[in-house]
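Category: protein sequence paired with discrete backbone structure
Discipline: computational structural biology
Format: plain text, a pair of labelled lines
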Amino acid sequence: MIAEIGQFVLILALVLAGVQATLPLWGAARGHNALMVLADRTAIGQAVALLIAFAALTHGFVTSDFSLTVVFQNSHSLKPMLYKVSGVWGNHEGSMLLWVLVLALFSAAVALFGRNLPPSLKARVLAVQAMIGVGFLAFIIFTSNPFARLSPAPLDGTGLNPLLQDPGLAFHPPLLYLGYVGFSMAFSFAVAALIEGRVDAAWARWVRPWTLAAWTFLTAGIALGSWWAYYELGWGGWWFWDPVENASFMPWLFGTALLHSAIVVEKRDALKSWTILLAILTFSMSLLGTFLVRSGVLTSVHAFATDPERGIFILAILALTIGIALTLFAIRAPGMKGGGLFAPVSREGALIFNNMLLTIAAGTVLLGTLYPLILEAFSGGTAKVSVGPPFFNATFVPIMVPLVIMMSIGPLLAWKRGTLRTAAHKLIPAAIVTILAIGATFILVPEGPGLAPFAMGLAAWLAAGTLAEWAGRIKLFAIPVPESWRRLKGLPRAASGMTLAHLGLAIMIVGITGSSAWRTELITTLVPGESANGAGHTVTLSEISQGRGPNYNYERATLLITDNGREITTLTTERRFFPIAGQTTTEAGIYTTILSDLYGVIGERGRTPDTSDAWTVRFFVNPLVPWIWLGAMVMVFGGSLSLTDRRHRVGAPRRAAATDSTSQPSPVAAE
């Protein structure tokens, strides 16, 4: 009965989305206030209906209702409760239900908290959101029904993919969805502005917090997924340029560009058309990621579905959504004239340079992701190529170098017209720190790639330049400390959040450089009690034990790690076999310090009589890899801090009385 309620409210949500997508849009065009207000009510009603549907599906998983096809295929009575719950979205049908739920929750948030929005713009934004919802709700109901029944009901299920039975993967998908589905708000604001024919500082102020929230969630989701791959997959790496990894990274790159571009619209009334286009492209990449994961066109541990027919449905939604938005953009964008003129050397110019590089980087990742698929399609499946880390490292990294360099220069330039001499003078301490960092790296770590010290210098440049800009805001050392403290307390939280986000990236660069340039490894076979030397340590396989977990059997290895006879740590690593799924997973043993990770993994047991008592052991020393996730956490904290800025909550400016798009924005505080 509960499943039938879920089915009913799912259909009700589709009906409400249809009403929300049409009547408020008509009301906005005709100035009919009652129809515009209807958008708020239907948005909230749709969110409530989908919450009930999601709760009904969760009930099916928690109670092991194997009469539901999706529960039978993705759960088991012996599965721990955490993974019964996470199994709700650990499959295609449930994850799509979560997708539309997130979409509806963002719509409801605009309905509840967007009181400062003009009624016509608000109605149009919610109508565009509902149009997206109609497409995906129809997709779920007609091709991916999570409440489909089995008769007779099986006694037990087939279980969840063992790779997904991990706390990291339990929370990774919801964060990702809050991120790239959250970018739908920027898309809806952009399309609504195109329909209305007006983009100004007020519009930019309204769209920024929604974009920032999505960016923050997506940053957290990508970082959590990277951490999961690092400790769960057992290969010692944290990023492999997997197509599905790229699918989440591309909207992050476009979203980062969008955030910076919206600042120019807000402050200088410029880059209007470009900002609108970025909003469309950002969500387009989110839709493309949804297609890649669910179409069956690629194979990945992250992929949910392998049904081409479902992929065609999503491809149709993608083509329709992007096609209509870009057509509207082509019609309306030429009329959006910017009123803020600026010199090439200015804060605006630096942000344009930033946008250009981020867009090129996203395009490079898009090309590397889709090229194998396109080539295979045109060759009829006869030509197959693999585009992996060598391609992305050779193309993506060089694009990022000038971007990071400019991140320290841009914030020190004045709006409208700046001077490089002034910025260079302020960056003299950063230049000194950079030279010292390069020299120190050459001396302390002479082995490794020759470019590694320069990468460390790049991180030092970004960190020192960011701190120099922050110190300039509060006039540190230029005025008495109490006065600097007073200025710090009065600093907008958005400015402090930007500082933290840039610092977080600098920290990540240190971690990426260290783990890539100076990683060492030992791969050997050992019998219990035997030792091997490698990666600067002695690794001893102390013992092997076997046992049973909640729904798996395991082989557990204890590795003693010593350095010149001095015990460093003991690592515990497991191979887990899930009988129901017939799959084996690896649990790495990791010892973390501020400077490195010691990473141990047990492999297969020997299969010949001579090796039957030996196990493959892999041991890695990953220098500075903890800095990757430390940097990501700092970036997420910076984004969260920016969201608490009062201006993002209640400070949106009033629109000027003029109706043309060239009206000047109201004065706002400096970023």
